[in-house]
């Protein structure tokens, strides 16, 4: 049914997984960059690893995940036709 609300990630189709990854990734990046923004308030967190490498790796992982779920969605959509 089209109107069903699916809570569990494994029960979603490829389009639903992409949409959930899209907003979930955006929220994760928002939280990550807020932590980096407030890192100078805690001297133990104010270093190059937290300021540069962790946000860079996190952003790259989310972009790769979005690209993977998008191609999976389009492949599934194409096979249905």
From TrEMBL:
The chain crosses the membrane at residues 21-40, 52-71. Keywords: Membrane, Transmembrane, Transmembrane helix. It comes from Bhargavaea beijingensis. This is Uncharacterized protein.
